[in-house]
Amino acid sequence: MIIVMKPGSSREEIDHVVKKVEGVGLKAVLLHGTERNVIACLGDKRDIAQDFWNALPGVEKAMPILSPYKMASREVKPTNTEVLLGKFPFGAKKIGVIAGPCAVENKNQLISIAQRVKEAGAVALRGGAFKPRTNPYAFQGLMEEGLEYLAEAREKTGLPVVTEVLSPEHVQMVAKYADVLQIGTRNMGNFVLLKAVGEQPKPVILKRGMSATLEEFLLAAEYILSRGNTNVLLCERGIRTFENHTRFTLSLSAVPQLKQFTHLPIIVDPSHGTGKSSLVNPMSKGAVAVGADGLLIEVHIDPEKALIDGAQTLSTEEFKRLMKELKPLAQAVGRDV
Amino acid sequence: MIIVMKPGSSREEIDHVVKKVEGVGLKAVLLHGTERNVIACLGDKRDIAQDFWNALPGVEKAMPILSPYKMASREVKPTNTEVLLGKFPFGAKKIGVIAGPCAVENKNQLISIAQRVKEAGAVALRGGAFKPRTNPYAFQGLMEEGLEYLAEAREKTGLPVVTEVLSPEHVQMVAKYADVLQIGTRNMGNFVLLKAVGEQPKPVILKRGMSATLEEFLLAAEYILSRGNTNVLLCERGIRTFENHTRFTLSLSAVPQLKQFTHLPIIVDPSHGTGKSSLVNPMSKGAVAVGADGLLIEVHIDPEKALIDGAQTLSTEEFKRLMKELKPLAQAVGRDV
Amino acid sequence: MIIVMKPGSSREEIDHVVKKVEGVGLKAVLLHGTERNVIACLGDKRDIAQDFWNALPGVEKAMPILSPYKMASREVKPTNTEVLLGKFPFGAKKIGVIAGPCAVENKNQLISIAQRVKEAGAVALRGGAFKPRTNPYAFQGLMEEGLEYLAEAREKTGLPVVTEVLSPEHVQMVAKYADVLQIGTRNMGNFVLLKAVGEQPKPVILKRGMSATLEEFLLAAEYILSRGNTNVLLCERGIRTFENHTRFTLSLSAVPQLKQFTHLPIIVDPSHGTGKSSLVNPMSKGAVAVGADGLLIEVHIDPEKALIDGAQTLSTEEFKRLMKELKPLAQAVGRDV
Amino acid sequence: MIIVMKPGSSREEIDHVVKKVEGVGLKAVLLHGTERNVIACLGDKRDIAQDFWNALPGVEKAMPILSPYKMASREVKPTNTEVLLGKFPFGAKKIGVIAGPCAVENKNQLISIAQRVKEAGAVALRGGAFKPRTNPYAFQGLMEEGLEYLAEAREKTGLPVVTEVLSPEHVQMVAKYADVLQIGTRNMGNFVLLKAVGEQPKPVILKRGMSATLEEFLLAAEYILSRGNTNVLLCERGIRTFENHTRFTLSLSAVPQLKQFTHLPIIVDPSHGTGKSSLVNPMSKGAVAVGADGLLIEVHIDPEKALIDGAQTLSTEEFKRLMKELKPLAQAVGRDV
Description:
Four copies of one chain form a homotetramer. By secondary structure, chain A is of the alpha/beta class.
């Protein structure tokens, strides 16, 4: 932590800050600059909010040096973490593709989508049973019935099943059926839910909040890790910006940057990240090229009939073609699919 | 709904869309333009996602005409709604100020802050017992113990008590102690929680999500209203932008715009909206000038000792001065404080 | 400047950075932390880009301590600067309102608007002769003819005249007719133009770039000041964010924050900042309440007939009412209008 | 254009709008909906601002159907445009890489960088002689001297030379030396400059404004095209968002989206788009994977000694490696490099 004092801060103010710094067990080094006095604080106290220091009289700004997350950090664990979804390790050489409908709508439809995405090369099936809808009057998902269909689709295809959990009190029920729990973008800051999925053992796909910095994203992962569950995949899914040609701006630079910051696997959701099916193919390729460990893609037998998100959903034919096109691309960056 | 067909869309595609439109009970009017064919859909079907139409072959874009919220809309209810916090009606002539510490830290501190903000003119006490912290290692609040202190502060001062609820399973417990439930910015899209507070009768302060459009904000309110609880106050608390001189950008234009869209009372939180105590005074004045019905302000006896958010917290002295300065301003816009 | 070294940076890398620091005339103080080595650089070298240091091997990040602007800074000049527009001092107790049509359209219309805004209390007339239009096929302004009409309107009313200059080669011509030169939001980063207006003596209204931080805004002002022209007014006019209820998000917190950073007068443009005439009245009040020194407002006799920006333009009647309503508000914050 | 009337708009207001619509030569079709009246305007009048309609009494909103650009539109010209830089066609099968230092610093350095990037496979040399610097005290480029060195580097290597032009009065001078004129992000809205480069024949690289929508970007291109110069390359270079791990957010989805909207070639600048040399390699690959026609990359023999932007600059070694790695990637998407 570097504390910059205001110009003209008094001797008393400086002494007061120094005392506070030493009071929490840090070493204070006072530097008299030509235009500012600066107090360098040596030691590791990530849990004291920067804000605390900013509130002291005479302080202009406090600048943290260490990231506030630890377990998620590559400094603490330099080697890549591999997370198993079924038997497929995310974070290893092969890129894993998770595919399926936005929402589980009925059993037959789900099973037939599952079979086709498996044939095309998907390693896991996604499908929402509990749907977080902006509009209270819109279809909210089949709930437990949907979970049963997912479990049945797993029986039929062998694909592990990924589904979203919306609330702490549903965690146990969802974990009973699903292989992987997904935390959606609107719940990245739902810390009670993060703790709940951190206290059970199934892998978690954590989606980036649509207005989260990478530091906030990694702190959300830290909530899960610090509760004992280290099977976390991070998912870039688009951020909110002024751009209006897509629903969100898919920030692909987050992928190589996160790879530097953390050892956790990173996947990308080009369906929600763009909101347009015509952009899913190129952005999937882009994600692979920048180093993503996996993709999360919405696929439906008949996108036009999808109850939710039809406009961003690939048909099973389009998905098959995408999988074929991804292979040489993955190989060109030393991976495979 | 206006559906714009792509240039060169076929007769079959147009017929297909028209059939779909009529299939959901809307009337389709086909307009042959010089460069585009357009299908105007007459009738009110707000619950069909725009996205559904975008997925149909040949469609360039679907443009909704009606807002998707109803109960929150001023079209449905033209007169202002007044929401009582204790005996004070928000949404009427007088502007109500809610004040208190970010977090409840101990009983004596809380009561003494409560007494001072009451003397200065606050009409309700705020204080967090459950704190949503970005950092998992930071202080998470006193929880039920904090709620007890809040209830005690109410006994001592008569001020109704506002506190945040983080999770559906806490709603009952929090509602037992508090007079008003607050939904924080990170939970505006936590629809399970919105439903839960919509199913109990105490008033709710709903904070705008930091990346929510006004339509999304009003749809979140609609979740609560549609479950039967019509005592909702909307709170603008800053949005996430590229600006870095404040923690968030407090969007004061949201206040008069929301006043046009909705009958619900609107309050403003200049403490979180700026993150800097030196900006709380001017931005409180700005909020009153643009037509806010209330303010939500962080106050502490000793901001430097606040466990959370000290940098944005007013001292009780500063708060007293602010309340005095707000009065002529409120009167200048035909209100009072 | 604080330079944070990467974890595990070598002795050689540290020595290399220290040598570079000393090479530019700064004093380097090396601090060995538990997790990072930090080099504090003492002295004032604002002209060396932070980027230079970031490029050195072993450096994790360089954090500047001093703002890069000087002449615009309140540290360098603590007292408010007053800038005269005609005889009216902006930056003093009275708030000045500049009003007029977006574009000069014809002589009679301009003169009649000028007379009415003067009667209502405006202290200067605005009107565009050169219009920066997003659409190349849209009306681009009357150019020199428009400037002549502005000069004539000044003769008739005594109001000083503000108009935009788009290009360095027009500066001389525009300055011949106008009393105040305006730099638009799209030209805040047009440094050749900034230098050109800095080399002539007439006051300059510098609009904030729609994606400029306050530091970048003040550096743009510094371009003008450093060329010798100290008559600069800063104008907040809305920034680009994800919000879609307004054309831009008017960031009123920029006003009190700029007041802390700089001695220059700050004005606000609620017309462009919102894009909606129904929001101009409340946001003008908000601007006065947060401490603005002036307002820049689009007014037309018949907004419906305005060639540009009709939707955000007040009628002369609405403007008159606004001026009346602003007076008690200005007085409530210790100013006048 | 679709004009939506406010609920409760009067017969007179509707008639008034219809008359205005017909007055500009459009056909008006009035649709009586259950909750709104809507006026569909048939015909093509892109040059009338939407804003004009929004200003009419009783109008809730006007929604344009046609994009306001024409010459840049793929509807008008369905086939890809190829732009020659020297002999290399951008927009054809091969992906072209333009490389060189941010700023021209001295002759020998420039020539030696030029030789190395040519060896590595670059098809054009970039280098700034006029530098738009945020900080007025920073190095502003060698100006005409820099242009001379660029011309000399072209003589020595055969590489066509790309350099930025900052002001209309420099266009002639810069065009005398350079093969390609670059318009920087801060000048995308400098319409006088756009017209000036549109009136000369050399190809133009137009960088996207850091806060420009794709429509605004294409309208800026339209300024150039409509003046007679059809040799325009569009360059995505990052947009301003809340993200802080990169200087800007490189929006790769803009590439395939622009490909749908326009026939012009699209290139990507990963150096400015990220501001970090460690992200240039992966983001270059991402750009190729999503379909970019070219890349613009900052390369220096000794990035540490670069006077500007060292932190985002590749060494010639790193560039050589990148070029080698791009080849299989380009081939994987059916292109070459």
